[in-house]
Amino acid sequence: MKMDAKQLIAAAAAARESSVSPYSKFKVGAALLTRAGQIVGGANVESASYGLTCCAERVALFKALTSGEKDFMAIAVVARCAKGPMPCGACRQLLAEYAPKAKVFIADTAALHRVRAFTMKSLLPSAFVLVP
Ligand code: ZN
Predict the structure, then answer these.
(1) CATH number for 56
(2) Predicted local distance difference test score (pLDDT) of residue 132
(3) From the candidates 17, 46, 57, 97, which is the catalytic residue?
(4) Which of 80, 55, 75 is nearest to 117 (CA)?
(5) Which domain holds residue 82?
(6) How far is the CA of 89 from the centre of ligand 1 (A)?
(7) Which of 28, 29, 57, 63 could in theory staple to 91 by disulfide, Cβ–Cβ 3.0 to 4.6 A?
(8) Helices assigned H by DSSP within the chain
(9) In a domain, 85, yes or no
(10) What is the pLDDT of residues 56-85, one digit of tens each?
């Protein structure tokens, strides 16, 4: 499966349209690419109890995992902010556990062609994982 960052960024931008962010109005979209070539999108969901809010990355990851997907090649995350939205610590932990080999593509929706790429290892070195 060839990894197309632009296609994945476009899928994240499309997923962002489903953002449920009535409080912050800060819409975030994410798209995960499986090894089989499937793309699973997600968007952030906010709660009146702010702490319950869930990021786009985790929504996409939870959707993919609970659909039986286990092997991820990349994730794209987009929002309207300078240089694009970096994953928060919670998302980095979950991605390090379930998508450790995934490339992470980040872009600002105002400049989707300007994609920054990271490895999970660079975003969360020495991640906490339970070794079987
Ligand atoms: Zn997050």
Answers:
(1) 3.40.140.10
(2) 64
(3) 57
(4) 75
(5) 5-123
(6) 6
(7) 57
(8) 5-16, 56-65, 89-98, 120-123
(9) yes
(10) 999 999 999 999 999 999 999 999 999 999
Chain position carrying tokens 């997907």: 69
Dist CA 86 CA 100 (whole Å): 16
Domain contains 132: no
pLDDT of res. 129: 87
d(CA 47, CA 68): 27
Residue pair 30/56 in contact by the 8 Å Cβ criterion: yes
For the record, the structure tokens of 61 come out as 């990851």
Residues less than 5 Å from ion ligand 1, measured at CB: 55, 88, 91
Identity (one letter) of the amino acid at 72? F
How many domains would you assign to the chain?
A: 1
Residue with tokens 């959707």: 63
Is residue 39 included in any domain, yes or no?
yes
* Residue 1: band (very low, low, confident or very high) from pLDDT cuts 50, 70, 90: very low
Q: Does residue 57 have an active-site annotation?
A: yes
- Residues 57/93, Cβ–Cβ less than 8 Å: no
